[in-house]
């Protein structure tokens, strides 16, 4: 998998982080591409380093080995996405997920 950082995100970092702080979202956008690459690869290796690899490729790009399994988008497209899956994903980000039934 390839993750590439574009220049527009760096320019908008202050506004993005202001929004996160104002809404209480415990996420911060790393504006410096080098810092972002280090963070992404270090976290990936910490979680998956025994079997999968992450590598820096270029000034704004990293490559990650694809992990087995289905992502949430695949489940959503197939109609198999459940509230349990969303709650588990939210807990990975430290977010509180409140699901409301359709009206």
Please sum up the structure shown.
The protein is built from 4 helices and 3 strands. It is mainly α. The chain starts with a strand and ends in an 11-residue tail after the last helix.
Q: If you had to describe this structure to a student in words, what would you say it looks like?
A:
It is a single chain. This protein is mostly helical and 103 residues long. It folds into two domains: 2-68, no CATH class; 69-103, no CATH class. Helix content is 49%, strand content 10%. It is built from four helices and three strands; from the N terminus they run βααββαα. The protein has helices spanning 7-23, 33-48, 72-78, 83-92; strands at 2-4, 54-56, 61-64. Strand 2 (54-56) and strand 3 form a beta hairpin. The longest helix is centred in the first third of the chain and has 17 residues, at 7-23. The protein starts with a strand and ends in an 11-residue tail after the last helix. 5% of the residues are buried.
Features:
single chain, 103 residues, 2 domains, 3 strands
The computed structural class is mainly alpha
Outline type:
globular
SSE order:
EHHEEHH
Please give the domain count.
Answer: 2
Q: Poorly predicted ranges (pLDDT <50, ≥5 residues)?
A: none
Helical segment count: 4
CA distance, first residue to last residue: 38 Å
The amount of beta strand, in percent, is 5-15%
Question: Strand order of the main beta sheet, please?
Answer: 1-3-2
Nearest-integer average pLDDT: 86
